[in-house]
């Protein structure tokens, strides 16, 4: 009986939602994390989609996250759960996972990864790139059954911070989003202070 591995690079990092028997922090090569996928079922609505992360192919890039090993006896339930949760992600790929201690040789081979493609025929919710101001405004305003879109972004930042894998690019995005929230609300303090990022 063979287990499977699933790689999480978004909300699966802090909220996998399925049974697993091992967890490895690592990265996949030649992909970067981008806020290009529209969310109409979790962090937005069909009328006002939120933005969640997907992977975009970029040679030389790395994307850090968490891989979970699911035992054979738990696979059916876990995969049924993931197919519902990740239903707006239209493709599954199998990538090798690398770690700090194994940066050149895969620590785990053939890790399953859900991601959203830009193919509008298969993925009607793909939003793609947009100016930073537009993206942060959309994230600030969007809200869905799983909560506000901005909460998703802050939780992702917190999860990556705990892994010690927050990139400068992502910090810049978070700071801009924080400033958007601060500007709209006229805040003077927040638990998501720039000094803590």
UniProtKB/TrEMBL annotation:
PANTHER family: CATION TRANSPORT PROTEIN CHAC-RELATED, GLUTATHIONE-SPECIFIC GAMMA-GLUTAMYLCYCLOTRANSFERASE 2
Keywords: Lyase
Protein source organism: Zea mays
CDD domains documented for this protein: GGCT_like
One Gene Ontology cellular component annotation held by this UniProt entry: cytoplasm
Coiled-coil regions, chain positions: none
GO molecular function terms noted in the UniProt entry: glutathione specific gamma-glutamylcyclotransferase activity
UniProt xrefs under InterPro entries: ChaC (IPR006840), GGCT-like (IPR013024), GGCT-like_sf (IPR036568)
EC code: 4.3.2.7
Protein name, UniProt field: glutathione-specific gamma-glutamylcyclotransferase
Keyword Cytoplasm recorded: no
One Gene Ontology term from the biological process aspect of the record: glutathione catabolic process
